[in-house]
Amino acid sequence: MTASPHAPVLIAEVIDALSPAPGDLMIDATFGAGGYTREILKTGAEVIALDRDPTVQPHADAVAADFPGRFQLVRTPFSGLAEAFADSGRPALNGAVFDIGVSSMQLDQAERGFSFMRDGPLDMRMSDEGLTAADIVNTYDHGPLAHLIKLYGEERQSGRIATAILRRRQSQAFTRTLDLAEVIEKALGGRRGAPTHPATRAFQALRIAVNDELGELEAGLAAAEASLSPGGRLAVVTFHSLEDRIVKAFFTERTGNAPGGSRHAPMAVETRKPSFDLMFKGAREAGEAELAANPRARSARLRAGVRTDAPAWGRIDGRRAA
Q1: Beta strands at 25-28 and 301-307: parallel, antiparallel or unpaired
Q2: What pLDDT does 283 receive?
């Protein structure tokens, strides 16, 4: 059995929410190193795992060897969940789990370009397709670049960062992570005792944009809603406010608890029946023991719901609905 380089957070809470049983089919929408998948398979359930990162294949091979006949990996982003389930030919999907964001093993691979603490090519793609972070910082005009950093990084000094990037790229294009991090640090006046690196928010924004992470999250939640059988369970772990806002809005809408809505209102053309029931109010967080063992869990939030027999609502933009 291959040791996992990435510790899944809130694993006990996720398994409790999913309640997998022998013969159930579960989708692990963020396979990574297979932490959630392995725990689900230990219960006797079957797993279809999704991941667009080609570097996870060795972990998938190890899981397939340890649990023959009950596991398969599909290389696709969240938006491919419904298709992956349909292609399985199985009549029912009993659960799905999402662990949103970048994994520690991706951050640890300098050649992927996710980290401002390790020198590597300015890439940040979770797959091997599409625009890189270098493409964005070297080609975007000031307005779109500043907007991107503010929107996805929640960075108040986005304009100053964009100005510094455009000024510097006039003489030399950006190709390396530490180079960009240094320019951002200087633009913001250095660290000055700040607990986090000045480039943290800008790097987060670039990563989200490169991988369309929020769009994929919205599409993935809608695909899970469309695919889960009545009684099927959806568990979502988030790590920052942008993700959690979308997930919270999704469950608020789907349970009929959005402002102005009512679970008990007479059906009308514009009224939808709730497609989920919440499993618990609010979000679950890591306990002290897990925090001591895995500091990454400090920002983790788990939200979960049970699929009703109502028709799926379809994709709704959680950022507008929040």
Answers
A1: unpaired
A2: 95
Alpha-carbon span 142 to 137, nearest angstrom = 10
Q: What DSSP string runs through 182-219?
A: HHHHHHTT--TT-SS-TTHHHHHHHHHHHHTHHHHHHH
Supply the pLDDT for residue 163: 98
Smallest CA-to-CA distance from 139 within 174, 111, 106 is with 174
pTM for this prediction: 0.87
At residue 258, the pLDDT reads 79
pLDDT on residue 77:
93
Return d(Cα 211, Cα 213) in angstroms, integer: 5
The tokens describing 279, both together, are 């499993």
DSSP letters spanning 93-142:
--EEEEE-S--HHHHH-GGG---SSS--BS---SSSSS--HHHHHHH--H
* Cα–Cα dist 27/47, whole Å: 6
Token digits of residue 256: 């009929």
Tokens coding 116: 């401002």
- Stated as kind and residue range, the H or E segment containing 306 is strand 301-307
pLDDT of residue 293: 87
Contact 182, 194 (CB under 8 A): no
Long-range contacts of 186-194 (CB under 8 A, 24+ apart): 187/157, 187/160, 187/161, 187/163, 188/157, 188/160, 188/161
- Stretches in the chain below the pLDDT threshold 70: 1-6, 101-118, 191-195, 260-270, 316-322
pLDDT score at 127: 81
